[in-house]
Automatic annotation (TrEMBL), chains A, B:
PROSITE patterns: HTH_HXLR. Residues 10-109 form the HTH hxlR-type domain. InterPro entries: HTH_HxlR (IPR002577), WH-like_DNA-bd_sf (IPR036388), WH_DNA-bd_sf (IPR036390). This is Helix-turn-helix transcriptional regulator. Keywords: DNA-binding, Transcription, Transcription regulation. The keyword Transcription regulation applies. PANTHER family: HTH-TYPE TRANSCRIPTIONAL REGULATOR YODB, TRANSCRIPTIONAL REGULATOR, MARR FAMILY.
Length: 144, 144
DNA sequence: AAATTTGCTTGCGAATTGCAAGTGCAAATG
DNA sequence: CATTTGCACTTGCAATTCGCAAGCAAATTT
């Protein structure tokens, strides 16, 4: 859980020191909303991240303590990437980004339906999904 | 209000197409929380943005419709940068980022106090500050 | 045993970043 | 009213980062 830069004491700036690029948050998105958890999974996402960029981002995300590498239960050739609690706690940020995009950008109808649902009871949605994600966490022996 | 890229139909990805760098959100932060509204104001912020980068970001933010350029009431030499409604609506995103940072990163005590206050009644805080920001908007003749 | 999958690493040209200096107009100053 | 200062940028250029393509070793499948 390394702390590299830190342009200022501002929390937004500090958050951007980790996530201020076009890819890092998408990896978290895939883990939160699409249950992706291997290198190959992330490579396959719609935005087509380059393999070297993916490797670099996974490393910094791990160094920042938002994800962790674990041995994959199904195969030694695979690596299991999991969110830490720090990573799971980004869910409200991801949700608000989507609510904003839903209002001000072009969003696919299927996603609009999902967001409408999530917005209906925001707190409960966050609590339920967070619990679910943190549940998986504790079953790895790394839960708090 | 230009639409340049669009890596996928995902709302998070689309938001990152605009804000996926280390500077854009900081400009919005300065406008929302520090009442900054001139080129010089933004240059002076703690993170020391380079002048060419600032000019480039202001342009894309304007093209994305989150800020607008207006003539400065006090001086012709100055330019007044203002948030649009689209920009003001980023407040919940900025808040959640800060709540996350408050929990998981190192944050200055004064800011922790501010965030504690904001969190106490999140909805009211957002409504009040949004109204305030949108109020300024309508006094420029560009309010909806 | 050979082919394929998986998680990377390496090379390299292209694009972006960031520092420093410069430019043109407006406003303040002497 | 001539000159300096302030303001909002632009330009040049070196350094870093990005992104495509290829390569690679270990594990797994056929």
């Amino acid at each position: 859980m390394k702390n590299k830069v830190n342009r200022s004491g501002c929390p937004i700036s500090s958050m951007l020191d980790i996530f201020g690029d076009k890819w890092s948050l998408l990896i978290i998105r895939d883990m939160v909303f699409s249950d992706k958890n291997t290198y190959g999974d992330f490579l396959k996402s719609d935005e087509k991240i380059a393999t070297n960029i993916l490797a670099a981002r996974l490393l910094t995300l791990e160094e920042s303590g938002v994800i962790q590498k674990l041995e994959h239960p199904g195969s030694k050739a695979k690596v299991l990437y999991m969110l830490t609690e720090k990573g799971i706690d980004l869910l409200p940020v991801l949700l608000e980004i989507q609510f904003w995009a839903d209002k001000h950008l072009t969003v696919l109808p299927e996603i609009k339906v999902f967001l409408k649902e999530a917005k209906k009871d925001r707190e409960k949605f966050i609590k339920t999904l967070s619990r679910q994600l943190k549940g998986r966490l504790s079953s790895t022996g790394n839960g708090k």
